[in-house]
Write a structure and sequence with these properties.
about 150 residues, mainly beta, Deoxyuridine 5'-Triphosphate Nucleotidohydrolase, Chain A, three-stranded antiparallel sheet, dUTPase_trimeric, dUTP diphosphatase activity, nucleotide metabolism, dUTPase-like
């Protein structure tokens, strides 16, 4: 069945910083996240954090942000979690993914392997205004468990 969704297409400029770098891709039509690829082999000792170079830089349009997320298969199967993940529109350097091995086993990411995904999202820039009072809500200052434990 054909989709009736009309997608607005954004052009994302991507610059290869190294000839072996792989451009980001979408796994399936309509996927929100773009996959980014490792430019070199990286060995993650258990419990250690390592950087994975992608070899690419991107030009995110003003008014948008790149949000970097785990690849679910890597997090679920290998125990690698993204640490950090906000790429501002003004950044033009190489995208270097920072991952933590939360497993008790050594994990090897090979060159060309998908390491992270990014969603480009519009955001509202806000002016910061200091105040002595903020509005109250039904939840108010309730934190974890504020809706009950059942």
């Amino acid at each position: 069945m054909a989709s009736s969704v009309a997608w607005k297409i954004m052009i994302l400029k991507v610059k290869k910083l190294h000839k072996d770098a792989k451009l980001p891709t979408h796994g399936h039509p309509g996927d929100a996240g773009m996959d980014f690829y490792a430019m070199e082999n990286v060995v993650f000792p258990p419990g250690k954090q390592m950087h994975v170079r992608t070899g690419v830089a991107i030009e995110i349009p003003e008014g948008y942000v790149g949000l970097v997320w785990d690849k679910s298969s890597i997090a679920f199967n290998l125990g690698l979690k993204i640490m950090g993940g906000v790429i501002d529109a003004g950044y033009r350097g190489e995208l270097i993914m920072n991952l933590l091995n939360i497993s008790d086993k050594e994990v090897i990411i090979e060159k060309g392997h998908k390491v992270a995904q990014m969603i480009i999202q519009k955001f509202e820039h806000c002016e910061i205004l200091e105040t002595d009072k903020i509005s109250e809500t039904v939840r108010d200052i309730g934190r974890e468990g504020s809706t009950g434990h059942k």
